[in-house]
Specification:
4 helices, mainly alpha
Length: about 150
């Protein structure tokens, strides 16, 4: 009988420790329903319980991972769109550069042709302006020195 009482005494002595440990991990069911109780420093820790706090932290971490993954996908899509636009801009720029080079060559050829025609011209058919031409120029807003009278 003495062994029975020793075991019973041991279990009774351990009961507060076991109850305290269970309450620490599980929390107090009635108090844990109070809104924002988990933010009260010591009471919140005991009221909510380590198990629920850990689960809430894991949910927060996983949510942050999902949000990060979603943001990564969005940024990757935006980057792909910007790369396509950059490629299109590069193609358009190259096309306009080729057009510009062709226009510069055509202008140079036309200028060479004009200079050659001027060099070959040996006639004396240069225009001579008479008084009527100068008067017409002055009437139509010319800033020639002859119009400053």
């Amino acid at each position: 009988m003495t062994a029975f009482f020793l075991i019973l005494r041991f279990l009774i002595a351990m009961l507060p420790g076991i109850a305290g440990t269970v309450l620490y991990y599980e929390g107090l069911p009635v108090i844990s329903k109070v809104p924002y109780i988990e933010y009260v420093p010591l009471v919140g820790t005991l009221a909510v319980g380590e198990k629920h706090r850990y689960a809430k932290e894991q949910v927060r971490i996983e949510t942050a991972k999902m949000v990060s993954a979603f943001e990564y996908e969005v940024v990757a899509q935006q980057l792909a769109v910007e790369r396509r636009r950059a490629d299109q801009a590069a193609q358009i720029t190259e096309e306009y550069r080729k057009r510009t080079e062709a226009a510069v060559r055509a202008t140079a050829q036309a200028q060479d042709k004009l200079e050659k025609a001027i060099a070959e011209d040996s006639g004396t058919d240069s225009p001579v302006w008479d008084a009527r031409d100068i008067e017409w120029l002055c009437e139509h807003g010319s800033k020639a020195p002859q119009c400053s009278r």
